Design the sequence.
């Protein structure tokens, strides 16, 4: 089972790297998931992610406080709004699908925005 967590951790890291390169895909959520996977399989890689100079502070804030920075909240909400607009424009969905996707984005945004801001 440990090897499955390890492999899944690397899949999450790969998705996080892709997210760092593509403006419409998130990064931190995949790295949070990678830290969780490595916590179950490789303390060495878990520690490397938690100590990363760029992403480590966000990952530690989430782990220790369940907190998201103001900048992170702004980018997450903005990304969701942009994604919803692109979905509407590109997919031209039916009303039920539009309402379902909109409700999902709204619930996700409310969750992210309701998280506390990290305390130093």
Sequence:
């Amino acid at each position: 089972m440990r090897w499955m967590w390890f492999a899944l951790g690397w899949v999450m890291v790969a998705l996080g790297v892709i997210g760092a390169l593509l403006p419409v895909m998130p990064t931190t959520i995949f790295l949070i998931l990678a830290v969780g996977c490595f916590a179950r399989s490789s303390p060495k890689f878990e520690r490397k992610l938690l100590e990363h100079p760029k992403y480590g502070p966000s990952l530690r804030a989430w782990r220790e406080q369940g907190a998201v920075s103001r900048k992170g909240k702004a980018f997450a909400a903005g990304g969701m709004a942009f994604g919803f607009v692109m979905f509407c424009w590109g997919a031209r969905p039916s009303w039920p699908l539009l309402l379902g996707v909109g409700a999902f984005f709204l619930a996700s945004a409310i969750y992210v925005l309701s998280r506390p801001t990290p305390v130093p």
Q: What stands out?
A: The longest helix spans residues 70-91. Helices lie at 2-21, 28-39, 43-50, 56-65, 70-91, 95-114. The chain has two domains: 2-65, 70-114. Residues 2-65 form one domain.
